[in-house]
Write a structure and sequence with these properties.
heterodimer, A: 162 residues, alpha+beta, 7-stranded antiparallel sheet, 7 strands, 15% helix, B: 368 residues, alpha/beta, FAD/NAD(P)-binding domain, 5-stranded parallel sheet, 9 helices, 26% strand, globular
């Protein structure tokens, strides 16, 4: 259970993911915010209206996945680093995950790294496709990784060594 | 004797905001801090803040400190005394200070006490071995002074500080072996817990440190499980090698000056210890003495800043300074505090503060 282990369950992750139909249409946000805490920068960052205004700042974010274009602005603005963007249309076999990554050294585009699950276990090899570390991201770089589609709901982090 | 209009004690998030607000309303402010530079704990907060835009959400603590310090620098009616320790508050309203070995006396017309909080300790055999630190101390070493505290760390406490410092240790290239939490659940924000968990760090809830060991310095700790009554369960011991233990089992308000000033105090567990009674303007039972931030109840820095603005506004208003939209400003600040504390995490804070409310002027017992 998340509150005991810090690991969201498969059901938690399932609920955060958009529908299969929406996933099939291209890049879209996955907001893994499971606890009511006073926080709303995801809404402030959103330019498409996909993340709704908070009635109470302690509410969980309400996401209309049909309005999200996967722009990734919210990813580096979330203080909890709980948002990623997933693109199931990247290739036939692979999905593209855009995740926040605040560790040095940063990986480089083209590099093969280990894909880690939400418990930090290595579960597969993933390829780094792009690393964005612009000033606007304010020290929360966003890295794009190509992940076999079977692993798209499992991978949430990377490890560089080994 | 130095005449001072408004004395702000403590230059952390609450004190800085109090000084800014009061100075913007026209008050002459002296802000004192015992550290060599203002900013309090903000200067070592490398993570993004929660809250809303009004509390600088999504900005990093040290950037918020810069923003507030820039405002202070641009207000000519704020005098800053760094490396200055407040020694005492006397019955006649005199406050004594020590700066570079010299002894100063000031007599402020009003005061905002924003002294913050200190880390609680934890008792276990050998907890005096070199290598056992408060988590906040390690964060200062690492993020303020650039000193790596060790190579492998065991974190005790899964509140926000324990989780955040664990994450920052890993960012600095230090291995975090595990996070140990006595309670049945993670106390800090679960997004922070997930951040360290997906880096592979185990979080052991209902566990504690049975003992630390090491010849000259810390070499490791023996952990064990706790039952539902927080009693150690024999036979569940296991060892974790570590050269650093960080203790992060909560904070307690630094309220000595409020006691000296004669403020009415009460022990409220959910607020971290003894805290002052206060009215809606954050004025204590002693007229002219206002409080803001962790000294009035341990919370997040976001609410400390809002409290700071509110205490600064109240103190300036007490001194006779007004601005055209004061009531609007005040209700906005109260609303911000209310919404920050509105959720399930703020529940304990809300209940704690409700025990401390001074409802009307009649309850204010003493003249400052």
């Amino acid at each position: 259970m998340l509150a005991v282990t810090g690991i969201p369950t498969a059901e938690d992750v399932e609920k955060a993911f958009p529908s299969e139909e929406r996933l099939a249409q291209g890049p879209v946000v996955v907001v893994e915010c499971y606890q009511s805490i006073p926080c709303n920068p995801c809404y402030t960052a959103c330019r498409t209206g996909a993340i709704k205004e908070f009635e109470d700042i302690n509410d969980l974010p309400t996401v209309d996945h049909s309005l999200c274009n996967g722009c990734t602005l919210c990813v580096s603005n979330c203080p909890g680093l709980s948002i990623m963007v997933v693109d199931m249309t990247y290739t036939e076999e692979e999905a593209l995950l855009k995740i926040p990554y605040e560790f040095l050294p940063l990986p480089e585009a083209g590099q093969m790294v280990k894909g880690l699950d939400r418990a930090g276990q290595e579960i597969c090899d993933v390829k780094v496709v792009r690393v964005v570390n612009s000033k606007a991201l304010d020290k929360t770089p966003v890295i794009s990784i190509a992940v076999k589609k079977d692993f798209v709901k499992l991978v949430r982090n990377i490890r560089m060594e080994g | 004797m130095m005449p001072v209009e408004l004395l702000v004690i403590g230059g952390g998030p609450a004190g800085l905001c109090a000084a800014i607000q009061a100075a913007e309303m026209g008050s002459r402010v002296m802000i004192v801090d015992r550290n060599n530079a203002l900013g309090g704990q903000l200067v070592k907060q490398t993570h993004m803040f929660f809250g809303s835009e009004k509390q600088y959400a999504s900005k990093r603590g040290f950037d918020i400190a810069k923003l507030l310090l820039d405002k202070i620098a641009n207000l000519s009616n704020i005098e800053v005394l760094e490396a200055t320790t407040v020694l005492g508050v006397y019955e006649d309203g005199v406050v004594t200070l020590e700066k570079n070995g010299s002894y100063l006396k000031v007599k402020p017309k009003a005061m905002v006490v924003a002294t913050g909080a200190s880390e609680k300790a934890l008792a276990f055999p050998n907890n005096d071995l070199p290598g056992i630190y408060g988590a906040g101390a390690v964060q200062t070493l690492m993020n303020e002074y650039g000193v790596k505290p060790g190579n492998s760390v065991l974190m005790v406490g899964a509140g926000n500080i324990g989780l955040i410092v664990s994450y920052q240790l890993m960012q600095a290239g230090v291995k975090v072996e595990a996070i140990v939490e006595g309670g049945p659940q993670i106390g800090g924000y679960l997004v922070h817990a997930s951040k360290v968990r997906r880096m592979g760090v185990p979080i052991y809830t209902q566990h504690t440190v049975k003992a630390a060991y090491g010849k000259e310095v810390l070499e490791g700790v023996t952990l064990c499980r706790l039952d539902d009554q927080w009693q150690q369960i024999p036979g569940t011991e296991f060892d974790v090698k570590a050269d650093v233990v960080c203790i992060s089992v909560g904070l307690t308000p630094l309220s000595e000056l409020l006691w000296q000033a004669g403020c009415q105090m009460k022990y409220v567990n959910s607020l971290g210890g003894f805290v002052p009674y206060r009215d809606d303007n954050l004025q204590t039972s002693v007229k002219g003495i206002f409080v803001a931030g962790d000294v009035s109840g341990v919370e997040e820095a976001s609410s400390a800043m809002v409290e700071g603005y509110l205490a600064g506004l109240s103190a300036a208003s007490y001194l006779g300074y007004k601005i055209y939209n004061m009531n609007e400003l005040k209700s906005d600040l109260l609303l911000q505090l209310d919404s920050l504390r509105h959720g399930p995490v703020g529940d304990r804070i809300r209940k704690g503060i409700a025990e401390l409310r001074i409802i009307n002027e009649a309850a204010a017992s003493k003249e400052a």
